[in-house]
C-alpha cells in the first residue's frame, strides 16, 4: 500500500533537509514541501490564499498518490494544529494509502542556534525566532510520532523515519 509520510514541526527543526534526504534514499518516492505552495511576494495570509494553498497541496498529493509508479509520498509542512492534518487528509478521501505522521522537534537551545544562523544568513526574518519559540509547545500533544533532531544529523533523522515506515 502507498504511504503518505507527513513530516511536520516548527521552522528550524529540519523538515526540508530531512525530507530531501529521505526522498533520495527511498526508491519510488516523491517529495512535496508545503512551503513551495506559499512562495508569493508579498506573503499574505488571508482566507483566499489559505484556501488556494490547501487546494494546491491536496491537488499535488492526490496526483502523487494516484501515480502507479510511486510508493512513497513525502510531504513536509509546518502544520502546527491537528485541524490542518484533518483539512489536508479529508480532501484525499477515496484514495487508498497509509498515513504516517512524524513531528520533528528539537530543544530550545538547538532551535535558537539554528534559527539565529538562518537569520544571520538572511534565510529567515528576525520575527521567526519568537514565532517559532511560541509554536514549539503546539507540537507536544499532537497525535504523531516524535523525533528529536537536537543532537542527530539529517541523515540520522531520515534513517529513523525509514525504520518507522518499514515496520
What would the principal axes of the Cα set say about the shape? globular
Radius of gyration over all CA atoms, rounded: 16 Å
CATH-defined fold name = Rossmann fold
- SSE class: alpha/beta
Structure description:
The structure is a single chain. 44% of the residues lie in helices and 17% in strands. With 167 residues, the protein is α/β, with parallel strands linked by helices. The chain has one domain: 3-Layer(aba) Sandwich (Rossmann fold), CATH 3.40.50.300. The chain has a five-stranded parallel beta sheet with strand order 2-3-1-4-5, with helices on both faces. The protein is globular and about 45 Å long. The model has no long low-confidence stretch (mean pLDDT 95).
Write the layout of secondary structure elements.
Blueprint: E1 3-8, H1 15-25, E2 29-33, H2 47-66, E3 72-76, H3 82-90, E4 98-105, H4 108-120, H5 127-135, E5 145-148, H6 154-165
Parallel strand pairs: 1-3, 1-4, 2-3, 4-5
Helix pairs in contact: 1-6, 4-5
Amino acid at each position: 500500500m502507498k504511504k503518505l509520510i507527513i513530516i511536520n514541526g516548527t521552522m528550524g527543526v529540519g523538515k526540508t533537509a530531512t525530507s530531501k534526504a529521505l526522498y533520495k534514499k527511498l526508491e519510488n518516492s516523491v517529495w512535496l514541501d508545503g512551503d513551495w505552495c506559499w512562495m508569493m511576494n508579498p506573503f499574505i495570509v488571508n482566507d483566499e490564499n489559505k484556501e488556494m494553498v490547501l487546494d494546491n497541496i491536496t491537488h499535488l498529493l492526490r496526483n502523487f498518490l494516484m501515480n502507479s509508479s510511486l510508493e512513497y509520498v513525502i510531504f513536509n509542512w509546518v502544520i502546527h494544529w491537528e485541524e490542518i492534518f484533518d483539512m489536508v487528509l479529508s480532501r484525499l478521501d477515496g484514495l487508498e494509502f497509509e498515513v504516517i505522521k512524524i513531528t520533528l522537534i528539537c530543544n530550545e537551545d538547538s532551535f535558537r542556534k539554528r534559527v539565529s544562523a538562518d537569520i544571520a544568513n538572511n534565510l529567515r526574518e528576525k520575527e521567526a525566532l519568537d514565532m517559532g519559540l511560541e509554536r514549539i509547545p503546539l507540537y507536544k500533544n499532537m497525535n504523531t510520532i516524535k523525533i528529536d533532531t537536537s543532537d542527530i544529523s539529517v541523515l540520522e533523522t531520515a534513517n529513523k523515519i525509514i525504520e518507522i515506515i518499514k515496520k
